[in-house]
Amino acid sequence: MTGPGVTGSRTEPTLTVSGLAQASGVAASAVRFYDNHGLIPSVRTTGNQRRFYEIDSCLVKIIRVAQRVGLSVAEIRDLLADLPDRPDITIEDWYHLRHRLEDEVRIRIEALTSVLDDLTTEDQLRDVPPPAAPERRPGAPPAAATSSRWPRRRGRRCRRSPPPRGAGRRH
User: Which residues, including other chains, have CB under 8 Å from residue 35's CB and lie 6 or more apart?
Assistant: First the structure.
């Protein structure tokens, strides 16, 4: 891999934040976010700059897929925890990670399918009790009068000031 932000060998962390962002197709802020949350930890230079391995571009792409599936940062971190150190990742490790992610997708699809079945089956919907009416305090207005999108103003209402003299008149 060559290009901006890339120098050196495959076993040394050589990609800069912008180099990794470009290689993986994400914003630099996403790379920093993943680093800050421990998904792709960086190696710091003596000048405290972040450096990443070339293989981290593949990890970023997997993280993006995991996010699309709906996994949280903690779940993604757990998913990536079984990987060996980045220079030592093998093709078998990638296959194992892929299968774990596929299994998670299937579990989520089954759960969503079950929810969809509950929604589309009339028997299930009839079994759900109607929501209980909220208790009213004595002297309180009915619920329909108090529930609105905007909070009720207290005190004096704002009045429109009259238009200036002569405004809007035709001569």
Answer: 41, 42, 50
